Amino acid sequence: MKIITYLLLLLSYVVLAVSGCSNIGNDASANAHSTTKPERIENHSGVDNLDGYSWMNRPTVFNVNNGIVYFTSEPKTDFFNDPESGKATATAPLLYKNIEGDFVATALVKPDFSDTWNAAALMVHIDESTWIKFAFERSDATGRSIVSVVTKGVSDDANGAVLAESDSAWLRIIRKGDVYSMLWSEDGSHYTMARLTKMPASPSVKVGVEVQSPLENSAQHEIHLFNIEHRTVDNLRTGI
Q: Which helix (H) or strand (E) holds 14?
């Protein structure tokens, strides 16, 4: 009888432990400090069925499966208005929505790091000379790193945290009025601010995910989650 009672107690513990598990794409990890349910990119039969989304530089190879977006970026694709040469490049694929007002945009990205400057990013695009790119990138200086590019006529290029052992990262851009904060996370729950900047006033902006391979080879990137919440945070630095 004691053995049977012990086995029943053990079985109850196992059931409770399994029911308490969560995965990387669940609501809580995707939206820390938020009660808003994430709006994942859903599984569609073809790219033409992505209701509400638009393309800038639509890629030739693209697939959505179980909420994961698989991009192939062609060689020499990038968004960068070079402050040295003055050359403006805007050739990388960008999948976006037009968003009005304040928002919190979050993406879980897994870039193809096979070449220097390959990256997957969140973007806020106002026009060809005014935009933000917040990326997990293979930097020429620091390897796998959080990199931010703010463009107001010309682009800057700022390396942030080094995530040398990570294959993926959570990226977040928050808008409050005309001020934007960029935050990153390794677990989807605890975010650290990388940058804070003010952009020119614009009622509506393009918010989306971008992938790039600026050198001679194509790359295959994955976007595991992308969601946009229409809400206003109290603190841009913490995202809360």
A: helix 2-19
